[in-house]
Amino acid sequence: MRMEGDDWEPISAADLSARVSEEAKELTAEDRERFETWRAEPGMRASIFRSESHGAESVYVLAKVGSSVLFFDDVEDEFAVGRLGDDGLISSPGLAGELRSALQSLSLLSTA
Question: What is the pTM of this model?
Answer without folding.
Answer: 0.89
